[in-house]
């Protein structure tokens, strides 16, 4: 859903496109996905609160199905707008509930790896969208993704709810069975008591009480960390490359490889990195991965900006046409290595059960806000400052993540959710 615009905006902005888009219209097609995330963030949190994280994930697929149907039927820019907004609604809901679901079903020792494995779906989706966009029309690709959404609904409908949700609504025997299903091979009674203690210790009776929880200094600290991590995720240059990667290569006059093929290869590198980094989350810890990721992303943005500076100075772009491609490769590898999966893993760990929904909503809303701002302002900012300074600004902002993580973020690897809460209280 996120990278759909990279292959197809390049096609839709050509004069021979059946639905021709101006650059301003193209920026709205890209940005409306993130505008839909605003509402999705709140909707997803409500779904988790009332129906549990597993059922909420099923709900996220419904607006995505509507989006693919509309993209298949689209014959005007307005239909593209509505389709992308609907897709953003589902995406925002996903960010509100998916991390919570993973945090509730995974053992502490493999929770980070579980999140990383799950987020391998993102680079896999990037590759799939790039391949489909390269070989298929917009209508045919919409049918492919529609079928995949329907398959996902069928898969999740067959899964049990998380033990935390079942415990919360008083279905103790169902919670015990859920623990046995998700965590086969461990002591069910011991895990049952741990989940019960965690849910009971964080139980409150009303939304007002839940909001009052955020007055506690440890919770405020956790919220500040999550807001900053989700902000860094969106201001690092992600939207510039994911939404406009093919257009960036064309502007950079990089003929080393066909821009569409370059996008496929770069996204494939992200998938390989995600697979290789599965064990790194729980081996190295969250902080190390984030600092490595922030450093690599900053270097990649500086290199990309330097390419455009050299072009502005009159240098022959054919002499360094490898630079934008190499920069994009470095960005994708380092982003997927740390900044893509880690904020969601930390989100699932830092908050008590009773306020996780609200925290996830705030995190998703924050991500949507900065994603929309960075996507919609990308073209006007380039028109005003030029490509080089846009990438330099993104590099400078991302570099701030390294000292932030070092000084403010606690390490959570290998700890139970209760242990993390105890650490925040001290």
From TrEMBL:
Subcellular localization(s) per the UniProt record: Cell membrane
GO molecular function, one term: transmembrane transporter activity
Membrane topology: Multi-pass membrane protein
InterPro entries documented for this protein: MFS_dom, MFS_sugar_transport-like, MFS_trans_sf, MFS_Trehalose_Transporter, Sugar/inositol_transpt
Lineage, broadest ranks: Eukaryota, Metazoa, Ecdysozoa, Arthropoda, Hexapoda
Main location per the UniProt record: membrane
Pfam families, per database record: Sugar_tr (PF00083)
Keyword Ribosomal protein: no
The keyword Transport belongs to this UniProt entry's keyword annotation: yes
Any Gene Ontology CC annotation: plasma membrane
Major facilitator superfamily (MFS) profile domain sequence ranges: 1-413
SUPFAM superfamilies: MFS general substrate transporter (SSF103473)
Superkingdom of origin organism: Eukaryota
Protein name per Swiss-Prot or TrEMBL: Major facilitator superfamily (MFS) profile domain-containing protein
Keyword annotations: Cell membrane, Glycoprotein, Membrane, Sugar transport, Transmembrane, Transmembrane helix, Transport
Transmembrane segments: 55-74, 80-102, 114-136, 142-159, 222-244, 288-310, 322-341, 353-373, 389-409
